[in-house]
Amino acid sequence: MKIIADYHTHTIFSCGKKDTRRHAKGTIEENIISAIEKGIETIGISEHGFDHYTYGLSNKNFEIEYNMIQEFREKYPQINILMGMECNILDDKGNIDMKKEYIDKFDYILAGYHFGTKIKGLKGLLHTMDNYIFGGVFSRKYNTKCIVNAMKKNKILYISHPGDKGRVDIMEIAKVAEQTGTGLEINGYHDRLSAEMIKKIKHMDINFYIGSDAHSPRKIGNFDLAYKIIEESGLDWNKVVNVKK
Ligand SMILES: [Zn+2]
Ligand SMILES: [Zn+2]
């Protein structure tokens, strides 16, 4: 299998203001070198979004990262280096934590649902608690609406790990993904999309992406779990945008 691109990788800038190496372990350059060694054509650096209580890209690190990526493009011309972000989906109104003044600096954005984000309002808080404690048994509708409206309101390359950390109606999400052209991820770390989810939507006109969600350089391009899920689901490999069989 040839990996064309890995759009979902984190570096130490995902740790927050301080380089704790707790959340992610590698530098941007280490991620790039690992991708080159693995023969990957395009590497995307996609730090966690700004509005998280404990981790994610800070304003200061955003500037540093942006400049470093420009420099590494000259230093490593053998690979395409993209600056992305894995934004947090904040509510059911389509809001994600991308800053308007920064959007043009990013080559693409992903968006996903995570715990610990700066959600607004009691409703979001209650659903987060349900997702955290009960896996979202009472929040399927709400979680689905969060993703659907995020896709409608923002230009997102793909939704990362759909259905992880809270149940969703994948059919509903897939229908809107078809309309908006938003891709859906088969994550190389979290088992979402799952084979069961893909079976329900594999006939639809959707771009599927595999993302390693690497939090250390050696895990760049680690797609094995996703390959297994795809085989099990019977999804046509031609619908998986960033690998070539
Ligand atoms: Zn994520
Ligand atoms: Zn991630």
From TrEMBL:
Pfam entry (one): PHP
UniProt xrefs under SMART domains: POLIIIAc
Family matches, as InterPro entries: PHP_dom, PHP_phosphatase, Pol/His_phosphatase_N, Pol/histidinol_Pase-like
Polymerase/histidinol phosphatase N-terminal domain segment(s): 5-91
Gene3D superfamilies (alphabetical): Metal-dependent hydrolases
Protein name: PHP domain-containing protein
Lineage: Bacteria, Bacillati, Bacillota, Clostridia, Peptostreptococcales
